[in-house]
Amino acid sequence: MTKQEFLSMNDHSLLKPHLTKKEIMEGLQYAKDNHCASVCINPCNLDIAREVLEGSDVKIGTVIGFPSGAHTTFSKVAEAIVTAGGISLKEFSPKTMESKLVKGLYSAGEVLDIDAFTGGYNLQAAFSTGYVAAMHAVHGDEE
Asked: How far lies 26's CA from each of 23, 44, 131, in Å?
């Protein structure tokens, strides 16, 4: 395997919180020049990564909730929001959390298409749907 083949299958990590802007830009340019599969970068450096990697085939990844101190206020707020785009709620019975398509399949929490700000709402949805799904998975309709 050549160096180029190896790099095209690997991530170039730039997560150290003490990296300077110059070091980050150099690392991004290295990933671009060597056609790395992706870079993993702190959220506060996403704009720089988009700029440097524009037009390249290098994918950009980031971390959330990583206690490095290298997060912007905006990224912290974004982390506090449940990600939308899970399994459609229409596919599950709200009474049992059982799939309407696959008997015996139960789902709960953030795998469902629930979108809300924090403040306990997403945790409440996870706990409530988890409880309902578990009770019906174990006990069925006997209550």
From this structure: 5, 16, 49
The pTM of the whole model exceeds 0.85: no
pLDDT in tens, 6-21: 888 888 888 888 889 9
Cα 28 from chain centroid (whole Å): 21
Q: Residues 88, 91, 96, CA angle at the centre, nearest 5°?
A: 115
- Give the span between the Cα atoms of 79 and 10, in whole angstroms: 26
SS (H, E, C) the chain: CCHHHHHCCCEEEECCCCCCHHHHHHHHHHHHHCCCCEEEECHHHHHHHHHHHCCCCCEEEECCCCCCCCCCHHHHHHHCECCCCCECHHHECCCCCEECCCCCCECCHHHECCCCECCCHHHHHHHHHHHHHHHHHHHCCCC
Query: How many other CB atoms are found less than 10 A from the CB of residue 36?
Result: 25
